[in-house]
Amino acid sequence: MTFADYIFEFSKELDKTAIISKEEISYKKIYSKVNAIEKMLKDKGLNSKDVALLISENSTFFIQCYFGIIKNGTICVPINPNSSKEDIDYILKSLNIKNIFIQKKFMKKLSEISGIDIYNEEDIDKLEIVMYNQTNKEADGEDVAVILFTSGSTAKPKGVMLTHNNLIYNTNSIIQYLNLKEEDRMEVVLPFYYCYGTSLLHTHFRVGGSLVINNRFMFPETVLNDINHYKCTGFAGVPSNFQILLKMSDIKNRKFPSLRYITQAGGRMANIFINELIEILPKVDIYIMFGQTEATARLSYLPPNLLKEKMGSIGNGIPGTKLKVLNKEGREVKLGEIGEIVAQGKNIMKGYFNDEEETKKVLKNGYLYTGDIGTVDKDGYIYILSREKNIIKSGGNRISPKEIEDIILQIDGVIECAVVGVEDDILGEAAKAFIVSKNSNLNSRDIMEYCKTKLPSYKIPKYVAILKNLPKNSSGKVMLKKLKEMN
């Protein structure tokens, strides 16, 4: 059984709406195209050793191609459609890709590519409807199903290899703790080529729920309109999504009667924003989560009923996944100590494609070393302080950027804040804060004066810069490397 067989096990013949995008499309219609794509690939002789590239924004085309490729046992590599030609060329050569599924609007990116079979929406539309319901019995659960590329320390993209079993295991766990049902309908703004976005697709399709695709988050009111118009029960976002909704939309003056839960991952959200969400959405379950591409998607969650009591915590491992915080000697930290968060479970990747050295750095002694520095409270709940590489080492002190960011975000008018370490002749590294504010009168001196009332002297930013926007990647995460490069 492939991951696609597992996903459509109960929904393949449903006439129920699966996707709401430009039109409403049923599971039955989507599955017929999934079968058609599988048949086309099988007729061409493609198998589990072959790789197909998928270049598409969130769409029915993406979903049909993604599951069709996986159902054939072929490895699917979905990438950001805004990837540079250089990155695309690197991926094509590294994986020896001979088949590309791409939306017509992005075809110019392939103008100089030859010797590869390319399919767009028109090609998929022409495929004959295939209605058989056979399971791919040739598939091995430990075969790689998907490779997701993530930026690594080498500056070249790293390909995270996820098996069919990885995807099945993680999907089951997420469904369990979110208590997802066929009645659930998710408003989707996160891209499907990003593991958090893909997990929304996986989980809702497995239970026979529905997805409402919104590719216009730059107009946040459309997101709120969709939630109410389509009676969505769920919404998922990274911190910047929620910060924008809280600061740049009318969310505080609206009611959302259909909304059952929201989820947040993709970085730690400041407590001030969590508290605002609690106040605005008192009857909505708020799940604070932690994950990595290397863990398929999800590693931990904090139960909504503990949100106030354990504010700032990422909770504990999802069902079936174990999390620990280990010190430099590999022993679990004691109360008050800090260490690296490690994870163990069937959701942990097979490794990085063609990169044994980088794989050995993160897969050690049966654990995934996440690179996140954290601590544990008396009840065993985990709190992230920072990424190891983002900890600021200033004058002999180790400073968590998040602690400074949380303070600055309390200032009226501040929408976003990111703190990084920059080179300093005296301190070695000094904290520099980058601020986005809707208060035009706010200046760097105001920021520093406020910090003096809340932080010890060694944690006060030495530099403050006010920007119109923080640089972000396509998933909405702040690009700290770019901030470090700014003068």
What is the count of DSSP helices, taking H or I runs of 4+ residues?
14
Q: What's the helical proportion of residues? A: 25-40%
Provide the low-confidence segments as ranges.
Answer: none
Output mean pLDDT.
92
- The tally of strands reads 26
Rg calc? 23 Å
The major β-sheet equals: 9 strands, mixed
User: Structural class of the secondary elements?
Assistant: alpha/beta
Residues in β-strands, percent: 25-35%
Measured between the Cα atoms of the first and last residue, the distance is 53 Å
| Coarse morphology | globular
Strand order of the largest sheet: 2-1-10-9-11-12-13-14-15
| Assembly state of the chains shown | single chain
Please, could you describe this protein's structure?
- The protein is α/β, with parallel strands linked by helices.
- 29% of the residues lie in helices and 26% in strands.
- It has 14 helices and 26 strands.
- It has a 9-stranded mixed beta sheet, with helices on both faces. Strands 16, 17, 19, 20 and 21 form a 5-stranded antiparallel beta sheet that branches.
- Strand 22 (392-394) and strand 23 form a beta hairpin.
- Helix 2 (27-43) packs across helix 3.
- The chain is globular, with a radius of gyration of 23 Å.
- 45% of the residues are buried.
- The mean pLDDT is 92.
